[in-house]
Specification:
The chain is an alpha/beta fold. It has a single domain, classed as Metallo-beta-lactamase, Chain A (4-Layer Sandwich), CATH 3.60.15.10. The protein has seven helices and 15 strands. The chain has helices spanning 47-56, 73-79, 91-94, 162-171, 181-185, 190-201, 220-232; strands at residues 2-6, 9-14, 17-18, 21-22, 25-32, 36-40, 58-64, 84-87, 102-103, 116-119, 124-127, 130-133, 137-141, 146-148, 207-209. The strands form four sheets. The protein has a seven-stranded mixed sheet with strand order 1-2-5-6-7-8-9, covered by helices on one side. Strands 10-13-14-15 form a four-stranded mixed sheet, covered by helices on one side. It is globular and about 45 Å long.
Amino acid sequence: MLKQIDSHLWVAEQPLKYLGLPVGTRMTVILLSRERLLLISPINIDKETKAQLDLIGKVKFIIAPNLFHHLYLAECQQRYPQAELIATPGLEKKKPNLTIDKIFFRDEISFDSELEYLLFDGFQVLIPPKIVPANEIVFFHPESKTLILTDTIFNFDRNFPLITQLATRVLGCYQYLRPSLLEKIAIQDKEKLKQSIQKIMAWDFQRVIMAHGNIVENNAKEQLKAGYQWFTD
């Protein structure tokens, strides 16, 4: 089911476990001009959600924002064969069976100033026992002043199951808008990471949407600045 966040912005959520922890996941939906819909990090789109999307517009873009959020891409393509799948660099090698139409920073991709994006260069993830790049593309929706992240920030609280609360307390992202200790440990090029953060903070956003955790509606920029300061210290 879609939840409206702003006039041309929605999210849809579903349960998801990561490393055994219930963390949930979230898809972001943006209505662009000419009734074009853009889906960032698609989830399993059920009949109800599809019906809601069909009332809003036509799905034209399916976005794979990093190297991890690819579970429902093929299924989403089947539902919307007319849509372009635009992926982060490297996904074409990780998932060679996917039919990818365009790749960020390789192909010419423009959303007519309705959506801005950049590569969160330097951000890596510890997936025991390896450290791997996320290759995450982050987005800014100027109309709603919303920053859209995927796995580069979290925000867990008491609304999540107790086991998730306990784990995220240990990992440093319980009731804080910031990455976890797993990402902090994975840092290898702090200067490159800081440069990416500086570019993100230059956007005039007031709201932060992420894939895992609670959306931040108030004081989001200040919270994000503090979270990334902890992350890079």
